[in-house]
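[audit] Reproducing an earlier prediction to check determinism. Same input, same settings, fresh worker. If the tokens differ from the archived copy the diff job will pick it up downstream; this log only records the rerun itself.
[audit] input (205 residues):
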Amino acid sequence: MPSAVRLREDYSAEELRTRARRSRDVSQSRRLLSLAAVRDGMDRAAAAKIGGMDRQTLRDWVHRFNASGPEGLIDNRTEGPKPRLSEEQLAQFAKIVEAGPDREKDGIVRWRRVDLKRVIVERFGVDFHPRYVGKLLKKLGFSHISARPRHPAQDEQIVEGFKKRMARPVCKGFFESADDQSAATYPASEDSLPAKMEIRALRSS
């Protein structure tokens, strides 16, 4: 069994107990009380039980106390790992997603997670798993539900004419009342194709 680590001499048992009473950190208070017991000459195993720890853990805290004093008995709380993309890079990424892909350059008409993974690597030098790219999109407020892609050769006038034709009743009695209404519309985003419309004709009785 290794010999007990000698406790630094500049704190008396009473001073340690006083600090334990004044501390707002419960864990620090327990450790101070264990060290106060050690200062009084108590067996290390028994002193460790006062702080709710084993002898080896008490030994580790003695090393911390000898090096940093009572402040060394406080748990080190970090803020967690540093984000791999800065706020500025996240803002740039959001603009890329909003703008959509370049069909000639990217070879696609809408983003997929695997495509955005490639974009992040090329632009920012960070390689994420596609699943995390999905979480990143959700964090930025993007939905995984997207409108149907727009064909690059699509004629806006033809689309508008189609919308107007579909807006007219196609038979007598169609949409006569709210109770018999059998159409549902699904709004799309402002920059996407017109909203999808599903129309189911009423069965004649």
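[audit] rerun output stored. Observation attached for the diff report: The radius of gyration is 34 Å.
[audit] end
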